[in-house]
Amino acid sequence: MKMKFHLGKRSMPRHPHSHQPGGGITQVVALVDERYLKWLAGQHASAPLQLQRHNLQPVLVDLLRQSAPDAQLLRAYVFSDQQVLDLCDDVVVRSVPQHAIDGGLGLVRSLGLELNQLAQHGGAGLVLILSDDERLIPYIDEAQWRGLKVALVSDEGSLDMPKLMTEDPSWARLLLQADRRLALGQTAWEALTVPGAVLQSSRVAASLLPAQQSERDADAGESYFSNALPSDDWLEQVRQVIQSWWSEETADARLDLQEEMQNSQGVPPETDRHLLLRVRRELARTLSFQEKKAMRELIRATVLAPAQDLPVES
Length: 314
Prior knowledge:
Blueprint: E1 26-33, H1 34-42, H2 56-67, E2 71-80, E3 91-95, H3 99-102, H4 105-121, E4 126-130, H5 137-145, E5 149-155, H6 161-167, H7 169-177, E6 180-184, H8 186-193, H9 211-224, H10 232-248, H11 251-262, H12 269-283, H13 289-303
Parallel strand pairs: 1-2, 1-4, 2-3, 4-5, 5-6
């Protein structure tokens, strides 16, 4: 009986595209949610944030030099809801709708589509994603299924997963989906936030850093994850910031936030980022996890207060 199958013909491979052009070099593309980058950079800025976009490419190149010496950054795609006029080599800007219009859905779809295109057409072997939006998980999962490796970039403090799962579970779930998690250090944040700053390349692996620097980094981590509860003076200061913000919101905006928070356990990301930035500027420093938790409780208490306690607009 004649067989129907041609045993001599090989089926197409699952991943027909090569991501290593020659010499074992892995091509890398970065997908950057600019709102997330600004928010995270704001946690490390000592003055009102002025994002230094021209340093983004050198910062990512240096990050790869430390974590993946055989990788070469091809370009970075920056997804922004603001008009960007900076001319930066190897940085492509993708315009997305403002977050206030669609809650970031346009950004998620645009970044997710770019990720899927890279996975389907073999544009890279590794993708760096700078975002904390949990809605990217299905896109990342699809890209990984197609053979693409995905690394998520954050700061050093966010890599304490037990703490992060308690304080920001959606961000933690996103980080858990990645193949790798890379952290930008203090030198990188200075290059991204300080006008005129020049990136000092970090060529030495973290395990080989001098003991003094390792201890300093450890101390910074302990400060960020301090278990000390906020003082009454701190609570009052932050409460005033939140009440000031709440009084500036329109009646419609208040109703929308009340409805959203009544159906959730946390604070919407946009509101959370906005108030974190305002509080950080008021205090002139970053917040610990305990302080962030207390701030979010104050936000929910303010937003979900009985209607009669709210100022009435004529």
